[in-house]
Amino acid sequence: QTLDDDKKALLTFLSHFNSSLLRWNQSSPVCHLWTGVSCNANRDRIVSVRLPAVGFNGLIPPFTISRLSSLKFLSLRNNHFTGDFPSDFINLKNLTHLYLQHNYLSGPLLPVILSELKNLKVLDLSNNGFNGSIPASLSGLTSLRVLNLANNSFSGEIPDLDLPKLSQVNLSNNKLVGTIPKSLQRFQRSAFSGNKVSNNTTQRQRQHKIPFGLSQIAFLLILAAVCVLGFSGFSYTMITCCLRKKCFGKARIPGKLRKRDSSSSPGNWTARDDNTEEGGKIIFFGGRNHSFDLDDLLSSSAEVLGKGAFSTTYKVTMEDMSTVVVKRLKEVVVGRREFEQQMEIIGMIRHEFVAELKAYYYSKDDKLAVYSYYSQGSLFQMLHGNRGKYHRVPLDWDARLRIATGAARGLATIHEGNNGKLSHGNIKSSNIFLDSQCYGCIGDLGLTTIMRSLPQTTCLTSGYHAPEITDTRRSTQFSDVYSFGVVLLELLTGKSPVSPAELAPTTRQGENMDLASWIKNVVAKEWTGEVFDMEILSQSGGFEEEMVEMLQIGLACVALKQQDRPHIAQVVKLIEDIRSVDAE
Ligand SMILES: Nc1ncnc2c1ncn2[C@@H]1O[C@H](COP(=O)(O)OP(=O)(O)OP(=O)(O)O)[C@@H](O)[C@H]1O
């Protein structure tokens, strides 16, 4: 019933715009719109409505959206809305994120309305025509973290906003005057640029003036006397304390020892998830400048990219259109400490050919790892997607060489990590991604050692695991090189090591042949060129010699005895020696 009511309210809202919407998207306006709407876990209320850049104009229809009383996230940014800040939004008491930027809204902000939106964490009203003063009642929004009022016509003095959680402010390009209040002086000057405001150094200078019209010498004498008295008092207290300690043995430490605050460690910014009692927290790597936090992640639109053995992988597009990959880890078998230690090691690795671990989250119920997103997809998709279909875009030899070069360099960097002790443990084509220049980048780093081990039977049939691997949690740099060799063979043959059926024509019935054995088999019986992917062979250019060299590297990597395999640094050198792709 409640969901129906919510839907009705939303449809009433939409009905005001039908004509413009139809003009905007002839094909399927409603369909598109519903993708921006999501419900709570019980599916009985609408909690998030995002309708950015849909071409809405006119007033925000009153008592439509505001009837969605469970709404937490509302984005109507980049439309053409006019009129005042909607006074009926006072009903949206659960709202945490409000994005109304880039519209034509105007008029003053009514203090009473804002003070009621007590749960707001993000308020973005930038790039509108709001005027009047900035209401001091914003101080009541104690959860506020982001406040963007830039590019409006706000005037008067900036109120003292005592908001401890506030981490981003932008009041630039308004008509504000006076001094920046103390509570906001921790923010960069650029947050206030384009106004006639100063920070209160002039006030401070005034305070430094000698009081009561005393002459400078008299003032200095008094100051010296105060200092001497202060010093004597301090020394007296220290001496008595020491004596007391000596006389009474163990002295009690006054006050409480403060717990170390992880947010003060450089490079890490810790945000507690207010909703979890179990101490869930998200840790970011690489400085404080993160455009998202846990709420943003959880309230952003997510698309399932796939489900692996240990995790479900989502592509998450944030309100600012940046995209990350979030892996919800299902089978973590280590405790918080070990999990955090592993993530810290991985978070230190920064290399152009290794997918960056941006953040992680640990709570009793949920463990997340946030990586950078590669829009070109994985090597697996590039090699095997749409095979045999007319719209397949073939992957040429140059691209394959570039992928091999990048991925080998990425893996070499990983093996240097943790004082040269780090291994990946899950090198395969679906974990190698293509960057904008078609270099291969290694993804999914750091998960195998903290997850449940795969059963041995799975290892044997996975096609990528080295024969000595019986426990996927105990991978080694040798086994990584083996898996990388399989990827090279996959690149050359265009055959997937995980589908033995592809190798079937040359295997005897019932024989379970891996890619390396299949290649050796074919090379022994036929000529070497038989193993290469037809897609590259049909390409003009005569790259066969280069491909044979790569085949030798791949076969060296998949040597059965681990000590016979080359070190990854050697592999990088050998691949680069085939042809340097960088200059191209
Ligand atoms: N950072 C990323 N950028 C783009 N696509 C990704 C990223 N990480 C994973 N994917 C894609 O998401 C899908 C699911 O990935 P996931 O890692 O869950 O499964 P998998 O790689 O098939 O198996 P495994 O769990 O063993 O790694 C795969 O198609 C993978 O290529």
3D structure, described in words:
This protein has 584 residues and is an alpha/beta fold. A 7-stranded mixed beta sheet has the order 1-2-4-6-8-10-12, covered by helices on one side. Helix 10 (397-420) packs antiparallel against helix 12 (477-493) and helix 10 runs antiparallel to helix 16. Helix content is 32%, strand content 17%. The model is unreliable at 19-33, 202-213 and 240-278 (pLDDT under 50). It starts with a helix and ends in a 6-residue tail after the last helix. Bound molecules: adenosine-5'-triphosphate. Adenosine-5'-triphosphate is lined by residues 305-311, 313, 325, 355, 371, 373-374, 378, 426, 430-431, 433, 443-444. Adenosine-5'-triphosphate binds next to strand 17 and strand 18.
Summarize the structure.
This protein is an alpha/beta fold and 584 residues long. The protein has helices spanning 2-15, 18-24, 29-34, 111-116, 201-207, 216-248, 294-299, 336-347, 379-384, 397-420, 456-462, 477-493, 515-525, 534-537, 544-557, 568-578; strands at 37-39, 46-50, 57-59, 73-75, 80-83, 97-99, 104-108, 122-124, 129-132, 146-148, 153-157, 168-170, 175-180, 196-199, 269-272, 281-284, 301-307, 311-317, 323-329, 357-362, 367-372, 432-434, 440-442. A seven-stranded mixed sheet has the order 1-2-4-6-8-10-12, with helices on one face. A seven-stranded parallel sheet has the order 3-5-7-9-11-13-14, with no helix packed on it.
